[in-house]
């Protein structure tokens, strides 16, 4: 009986250690390397844009990328053109196990500068995080409309870019090259 208990304890420790090591290893990204993604119309911080894109280097890890950069084109607030420039400091992390070919993710450390293309100069910063997931079935990174923590700050024209909580519409970015992810 003592021997059986010892074997069961050893097996339980081995299973727990295996799970801990798998979690520490993080997501497996195939192939790793430079990724790009494109989406159609998206609204970012109240600014309607005709399209969006991202770039980033993805690796197999819990932290998949530390250089995610969002980009937006054709952006307007009413009839005024707006330029949105985001830094390449976004951090993409796996937040749970892959289930049904979907890997839950978070995109944090976002930092974007919005500028009104008219006089007087009008600027604001958008920073924060969004919830996302990656689908192996569709090859797409989807940013969810829920679970966002985005904030506008430092606005020089609060009527156009009001300071405070903001959001981004849900957006699905088709990823290239074709990629699979598992966690």
Cα(first) to Cα(last) distance is 38 Å
Strand content: over 45%
Total beta-strand segments: 16
* Overall SS class: mainly beta
Query: For the largest beta sheet, what order do the strands appear in spatially?
Result: 2-5-6-9-10-11-12-15
Number of helices: 1
| Net shape | elongated
Fraction of residues in H or I helices: 10-25%
Rg calculated over all Cα atoms: 20 Å
Could you list the spans in which at least 5 consecutive residues all have pLDDT below 50? 4-24
- How would a textbook summarize the main sheet? 8 strands, antiparallel, barrel
SSE pattern: HEEEEEEEEEEEEEEEE
Tell me, rounded to a whole number, the average pLDDT.
Answer: 87
Give a brief rundown of this model:
This protein is mostly beta strands and 183 residues long.
Topology:
Layout: H1 2-25, E1 28-30, E2 33-39, E3 42-44, E4 47-49, E5 51-58, E6 63-73, E7 76-77, E8 80-86, E9 90-94, E10 102-116, E11 122-135, E12 140-143, E13 149-153, E14 164-166, E15 171-176, E16 180-182
Antiparallel strand pairs: 1-16, 2-5, 2-15, 3-4, 5-6, 6-9, 7-8, 8-10, 9-10, 10-11, 11-12, 11-13, 12-15, 13-14
């Amino acid at each position: 009986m003592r021997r059986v208990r010892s074997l069961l304890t050893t097996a339980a420790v081995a299973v727990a250690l295996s799970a801990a090591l798998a979690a520490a290893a993080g997501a497996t990204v195939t192939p790793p390397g430079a990724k790009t993604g494109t989406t159609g119309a998206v609204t970012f911080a109240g600014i309607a844009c005709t399209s969006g894109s991202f770039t980033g280097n993805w690796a197999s890890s819990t932290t998949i990328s530390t250089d995610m950069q969002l980009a937006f084109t054709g952006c307007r607030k009413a009839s005024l053109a707006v330029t949105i420039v985001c830094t390449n400091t976004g951090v993409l992390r796996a937040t749970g196990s892959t289930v049904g070919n979907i890997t839950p993710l978070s995109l944090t450390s976002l930092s974007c500068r919005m500028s009104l293309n008219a006089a007087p100069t009008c600027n604001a910063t958008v920073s924060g995080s969004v919830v996302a997931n990656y689908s192996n079935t569709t090859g797409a990174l989807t940013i969810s409309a829920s679970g966002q923590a985005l904030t506008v700050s430092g606005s020089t024209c609060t009527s156009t870019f009001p300071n405070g909580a903001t959001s981004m519409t849900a957006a699905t970015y088709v990823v290239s090259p074709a990629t699979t992810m598992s966690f």
